[in-house]
Amino acid sequence: MYTWMIIWGVLFAVTVIAELSTMQLVCIWFAAGSLGAFLAAAAGLGPFWQIVIFTAISVLLLIFTRPLLKKLMVSKVTPTNLDAEIGRTAVVIEEIDPDKNTGRVKLGGVNWRARTDDGCVIPAGTIVRVERISGTTAFVTGTEQPVSMKQ
Question: Which residue, of 8, 22, 43, 82, has the greatest Cβ tally within 10 A?
Answer without folding.
Answer: 8
